[in-house]
Amino acid sequence: MSIEALEQFYDKVRASEALEAEATAAMQEGPAAVVALGAREGFNFSEEELAAGLAKLSNREELSEKDLDLVAGGVITHRFNMTKVGKVLY
Question: Is the entire prediction scored with pTM above 0.85?
Fold first, then answer.
């Protein structure tokens, strides 16, 4: 059931720009934040199941731009703008 919940959560995230923005921010915070967001939306899955789902997603032959945005983690900082941003602003 948990893998199914993760897949359903992923579908819901892809269907909502607002939820997608929240999921992207949660991915930058870490797996626990994504699991908490999923639980808030009514989907129960573990951090391990999230990791397995992301690995499965990344093993596809080609990812869409939306998929890449969702799985791309990390924080980029600029020496003039030390805030967490999704891209470098010049």
Answer: no
